[in-house]
Amino acid sequence: SQLADVPLQRTPRVKDVKNMLRAQKSADMYNSYSGRGWTHTTARGESFGPPRKLLEDGSLDVDYDTRFNSKILQVDYREDLFSKGKASGMRITVAVGNGKGLLGVGMTFHPRLREGLLEAKEYAYRQLVHFPMTEAGSIPYATRGRYHSTELHAIPTYSHQENKAQRVVKELLDLAGYKNVAVKLFGRNPVESVVKAFFVTFQNFETHQQQADRLGRYVVQFDPEAYFMPTVLAKPKDDTKPVPSRLRYMSQVRQ
Description:
Layout: H1 2-5, H2 14-32, E1 52-54, E2 60-64, E3 69-82, E4 85-97, E5 102-110, H3 113-126, E6 129-130, E7 143-147, E8 150-156, H4 167-176, E9 181-187, H5 191-202, H6 208-215, E10 219-223, E11 229-234, H7 245-254
Antiparallel strand pairs: 1-2, 3-4, 4-5, 5-6, 7-8, 8-9, 10-11
């Protein structure tokens, strides 16, 4: 009678144990990841600290330039063919910026991780580029850029919104100091192509006066926060309005 009161438990099957362990492993891996899809097993998306200062002779100083910060964008294992044969190593990309318009990106191929990261960070620090931006830190107008099969469309957003973009583009925006910018990526998304498309997109801005002089038109802004009231940002220097080519052709036909 006492044995009858003991509840019987079925021995778990091997298949059930494997599924349970697989689910636990997936949950642990998901909880260990953070930040817009970056997989931290390869340290991508993490900060690598400020670069070392450069001396007048071009050598590195022992002190660090704390005005800048660096982010790891790419750590991929590859096998490339060189003049001496096939070599295996890591393709590493590091970006360096000061958050005030200066940004540089360094790429290298190195067999060891730490040495490759230091080398890529040094390359990025040696080739800093200034990116134009407004006083509020945004872009003056919507623009787009293309590098091969990678295309970026960038638009300014409201002042209360943060940068929204693909993970590599967002890291570049933050390091350069851009604010309130939304970028949409089209096409292929390898890190090398995305970085080059970013430089093409954010380096071809014109001032409002340059746009007005080139087009011969008034540059007007319709601000939704001001009930879409028009604000003249720039006007052509000669203050003339060119006749569109279609109207000019119609006047010639009538004559």
